[in-house]
Amino acid sequence: MTDDKNIFNKELKVINIGIDTFPKDLKAQGVDVISVDWRPPAGGDLDMLKLLEKLEG
Amino acid sequence: MTKRVIVKTDTYRDSVILMRISNSITEVEGVQQAAIVMATALNKDLLENLDLLIEDVVEATPSDLVIAIEAKDEASIEVALLEVDRLLTTRETSEEGEVIPKTLSSAIRELPNANLVMISVPGEYASREATKALRRGLNVFLFSSNVSIEDEVKLKQLAVENGLLMMGPDCGTAIINNVVLGFGNSVRKGTIGIVSAAGTGLQQVSTIIHDEDFGISQAIGIGGNDLSKDVGGLMMIEGIKRLAEDSATEAIVLISKPPDKEVSNRVLEAAKRSNKPVVVIFLGGTSEEIERHSVVSAATLEDTSKAVCALMKGKQPTRTIFTAERNEVVALADSESKEFTSDQQFIRGLYTGGTLCSEALVILSPLLGTIYSNSPLKQEYNLENSSMSKDHTCVDMGSEEFTVGRPHPMIDYTLRKQRIIREGEDPKTAVILLDVVIGYGSHDNPAGELIPPIKEARDAAKKEGRRLSFVANIVGTDLDHQNLRKQQKQLEEAGVIVMPSNAQAVRLAALIATKGTIADLLFEEDT
CB of B492 within 8 Å of any CB in chain A? Predict the structure, then answer.
């Protein structure tokens, strides 16, 4: 384990992907948080997504 | 009656926001029904059931938003649509001028020192997002459920290889560096570390530790499948290693349902190697295997919390049946049950926390025999219909059949309120047993939600010459924004008996329902 990846006893900085209410609770606790404007990849087409994932390796 | 269905292509909002918007629109004057949903297969079925499925929706994709409204007239629909527009454009987190990145990479550019990614997208997309985060060297809290076991194994292996935490899938809560992630309670910072495969288990243990004047160094949620044969306890073992190395952690608590035997052995070996005091609860499992590894075993969540606090004080752990003296508890049960009719004999446990419901089943079974449930100890005690109680019943209202298309019952009390009234109508109901979970993520005033249906059920029963008993435990602390003491005061003023733990609430409910006849059996546990 490298120490730079260990989050214990460090300031938490969070990226939120999904439910919009979680960042509100984190901000209320004084945490730096940024939300991703997420939407289903490949327009939500799961077969297309599998193909994409293969291409991405 | 008139209908309007609109498809907004390539417009995504998460399900929690959309459920909230749908609820608001249903309250607009003249609106009969409203569904504002993403065009997934499941939601198309929902729209078909509401008779709001049109051709455009059939062809829409899961990244398209559907606004479907039925109202008494066109004017009501226009008002409702304006309100939908307003609510869709109000995003809770974005402040004016704030840049909203569209990808993880651009988010990392905006927040270069990010060290954790919180993911709550629909299950079928969750592994993809989590994999990307782990590959970028970020720890993950994965709230999403419906992730396959194969994907969970891959994600956790990738995390372990890279020295990262992979909390979840289906992880509801964690406390990292005194910050609550997901659903959880504000607790004091301290020296006790937790690794938990049970969300409300973690909440009950961390809050009782707080109440005992100790605090939490780290509480790592790992999701309910971690100790299965397939996942092999990958993240619990990693969590134990982390807490063993963490100088701020002096003692460790491990929480899970009974694990696979080989996995149990590996986890307990890791616990022993930590060289720190460890208390383990495998809820409903046996203690021999745990004690064989020189690790302390506890049978209830309360005993787990108190055992670790005792070890911190250099004392021997003891078991708690009730905090109050036997004679006080028996007198309380007598006074609650003295006006019961001869038919009133059953407990109806209406739970929002899955682990708390399991704990109720584990405690009640040896005292009362068969307890029916939608997640029973034995398959033969499975409720045919989760909405219909039978004899003694404890139902987990956070399970899937109650949460499809609506928020979790810790947020939305509608179904539990209806159920309280229905259970009260059953002449055989003696005690209604409740968990009240407060903290981040939960409703702002659960007592305010629960008191009106409790009063209604009591009044209706009274008219038929019956008296209903209500027993509850509040999972929370004085630091939670709902405030434990305030919630307790409100419930007690409404005649609810509030016990200091779920285990004690369950035992008191059993004592009341049996009019005290199981007192000897119950207190025998103490000897």
Answer: no
A14 neighbourhood in chain B, CB within 8 Å: 114-118
Q: Which residues contact B383 (CB under 8 A, 6 or more apart)?
A: B372, B373, B374, B376, B389, B390, B393, B395
Which chain A residues are Cβ-neighbours of B108 within 8 angstroms?
A: 15
Radius of gyration of chain A (CA): 16
Q: B207-253, pLDDT tens digit by residue?
A: 999 999 999 999 999 999 999 999 999 999 999 999 999 999 999 99
Tokens 């062809």, residue located: B59
Write the CA distances from B351 to B185, B207, B359, B361, B374, integer angstroms: 18, 18, 11, 11, 11
**What CATH number matches the domain at A3-56, 3.40.640.10, 3.40.50.920, 3.30.70.590, 3.40.50.720?**
3.40.50.720
> Out of A19-33, B86-100, B106-120, B178-192, which region has the weakest mean confidence (pLDDT)?
B86-100
The per-residue pLDDT for range B286-334, each reduced to its tens digit, is 888 899 888 999 999 999 999 999 999 999 999 999 999 999 999 999 9
**C-alpha separations of B181 from A7, A24, B153 in Å:** 14, 11, 22
ipTM for this prediction: 0.91
Q: Hey, are the CB atoms on A6 and B242 less than 8 Å from each other?
A: yes
